[in-house]
Amino acid sequence: MGFLKQKRDTIKLITKKELIKTVHAVWRETYFIRKGEKWFDYGKEAIYEKLLKLDSNATAEDVKDIIGNDSWTNLKCDECETNGLDVIIQVGQEPDYNSSTVNLCIDCSVKATSLLKGIICLGGGSFVCSPKCIIKNRASSQLFINPAPSLK
Description:
The structure is a single chain. The chain is α+β, with helices and mostly antiparallel strands. Helix 1 (16-31) runs antiparallel to helix 2 (42-52). The relative contact order is 0.14. The chain folds into two domains: 2-106, no CATH class; 120-152, no CATH class. The chain has helices spanning 16-31, 42-52, 60-67, 106-119, 131-138, and strands at residues 9-15, 32-33, 38-39, 87-93, 101-104. Strands 1-4-5 form a three-stranded antiparallel β-sheet. Strands 2-3 form a two-stranded antiparallel sheet.
């Protein structure tokens, strides 16, 4: 999958429902060899044909039954290690063997955002920096630390 795509930085919302909906396309991208127009092996093509038959009511369990494992639809937070999530925020490069990518659940995303809003401000004195604050203070390269907000 990833070795065919150009790496670029991204922030995306990933849902289990979207993984189920696109699993056939990702499977094909991963196991179909464009040079020579052939499949990695016959078993991969047979799985692809079954994935194509999934309808809009398909579940992660349906995909698991076809592929043999849940790795194609399982969402896990890399911070708190919660498994089986319905939604995550993916930050970094397109996932690949050598990519810099992190998947965060909603709770860990909120904690990370709160930390950024509360402790790093290039302009100092305000809870959240505005673009004007950053531009104005970029030349001085000053870093001001504010108290972190409480999570309510």
